[in-house]
Design brief:
It is built from 17 helices and no strands. By secondary structure, the protein is mainly α. It has two domains: about 375 residues, MFS general substrate transporter like domains (Growth Hormone, Chain: A); about 50 residues, no CATH class. This is MFS family permease.
Length: about 450
């Protein structure tokens, strides 16, 4: 096969991988604007608007790490295709859901299959590309993840408002079918790929991590007192990982990832950033539809500047700014993000403009973030690292919807969720500084 044909096949395969990534990440936010309409149509409760998102993102986050391990064991291409097929079937079930219970159950299944798809992407890209082409391929992941996360609310609102074929919000899930079929058509050019060493599967560790994540989210949305159990669960999980690693068995994730403080700081940064970006948009949607009693289209147009700003700054960061400034570009990005949120509090009538400024800042964060975080990962850590990075992104979005959504529902004002977001931005500055700090030598080189 000539080099030109091989190159074309590789980029077609990459298109399929990125479309699948966009499809799975899109479903984490595509119901944000549509959620109040879905809640009304299926006679749900006030908190069901939050659970429509959390029922997907929570199992998605939990399944990502075991999904990465299963890809290492059974083959990344095989798990990728299985995940896409299962995701399409679950999407069809969401489209036809007659009750809120059926919808939430189908969303859980969607999230589980999405957790099989996403961790395979980075490994398959690394197996398909090398040299400068690998860098170009990996550089597309950050913008795709960032843009789909914020494009989801706008797209979901527009689809719901369009009432395609009289389906209203149901068309939001139906859009996954053509995207999934396109993915399957493209990835036939991929070769099978699996880790050189087949790691063990830490089932108790996976179950424990899922229980801990769930215990953090439930009291935030529904109220309760399980926070103490969550903290205890984290401690037990850490002890479990250390003891399993010391015994020579494979733990739930690669402990070597945590020998350098930069990677755990990257995980914390991801939680904080996506809690802010996802939670702020969700709070604004609740305010426009429930507080101001305006239409689903109005809420889509209100959050559109955030998506547009992120798209513009992501393009500038990837093509121009990052090469000149390096990963330090994240700091002015956080400053712009915080300035936009503060502007929304100070001058509520200029909320769309303020969201546009915040979106500009968001793009300056996402592009250098993923490139920098992945630069610390060694080949045998790929599956575990990809799963963890994507898991904490989904967990951050879930917590953002839960915390900021509850802050709005509890006060009926955007002031509380926006002030909470500013506090999270302050914490984000600290975690990014740790992430970019000088790497320790010995034991964890790339």
């Amino acid at each position: 096969m000539n080099p030109s044909s091989t190159s074309t096949r590789r980029w077609i395969a990459l298109t399929g991988l990125l479309v699948a990534e966009a499809m799975n990440l899109l479903d984490a936010t595509i119901t944000t604007v549509a959620a109040p309409v879905i809640r009304t149509g299926l006679y749900g409760t006030a908190s069901d608007a939050q659970w429509i998102a959390a029922a997907y993102t929570l199992p998605f986050a939990v399944a990502l790490v075991p999904g990465g391990r299963l890809g290492d064991i059974h083959g990344r291409r095989r798990l990728f295709v299985l995940g896409v097929c299962g995701f399409l079937l679950a999407s069809a079930a969401c489209t036809a859901a007659p009750t809120m219970t059926v919808l939430l159950t189908a969303r859980v299944v969607q999230g589980c299959f999405a957790g099989l798809v996403i961790p395979q992407t980075i490994g398959l890209i690394k197996a398909t590309f090398d040299g400068p082409a690998l860098g170009r391929a990996l550089s597309l992941i950050g913008p795709v993840m960032g843009l789909t996360a914020v494009a989801g609310p706008v797209l979901g609102g527009l689809i719901t408002h369009a009432d395609l074929a009289g389906l209203s919000w149901r068309a939001v899930f139906l859009v996954n079918i053509p995207l999934g079929l396109l993915t399957l058509a493209c990835v036939r050019f991929l070769n099978e790929d699996r880790a050189a060493r087949r790691p063990g599967l830490d089932v108790p560790g996976f179950l424990l991590s899922g229980a801990v994540a769930t215990a953090f989210v439930i009291p935030t949305i529904d109220g309760g007192t399980s926070w103490g159990l969550s903290v205890v669960g984290v401690a037990v999980l850490i002890v479990h990982v250390r003891r399993r690693g010391a015994s020579g068995r494979d733990p739930v994730f690669e402990p070597s990832l945590f020998r350098d403080r930069g990677f755990p700081a990257a995980l914390a940064s991801s939680v904080l950033y996506f809690a802010v970006s996802t939670g702020v948009v969700f709070a604004v949607v609740l305010h426009v539809q429930d507080g101001l009693h305006r239409s689903v289209l109005a809420s889509s147009l209100t959050v559109l500047p955030f998506s547009a700003g992120l798209a513009v700054s992501s393009l500038l960061a990837g093509q121009v700014l990052l090469a000149r400034t390096g990963p330090g570009l994240m700091f002015p990005g956080i400053a712009l993000l915080a300035a936009g949120i503060a502007g929304g509090v100070a001058v509520p009538t200029w909320l769309p403009v303020a969201l546009g400024v915040a979106g500009l800042g968001g793009g300056l964060v996402t592009v250098p973030f993923f490139t920098t975080a992945l630069s610390r990962v060694r080949p045998h850590e790929t599956g575990s690292a990809a799963g963890l990075l994507n898991a904490v992104q989904q967990l951050g979005g879930t917590l953002g919807v839960a915390v900021l959504g509850s802050a709005y529902l509890g006060t009926g004002s955007l002031t509380a969720p926006f002030l909470c977001s500013l506090a999270l931005c302050g914490a984000l500055v600290l975690t990014v500084a740790l992430m970019l700090g000088k790497r320790k030598t010995g034991g964890h080189g790339c």
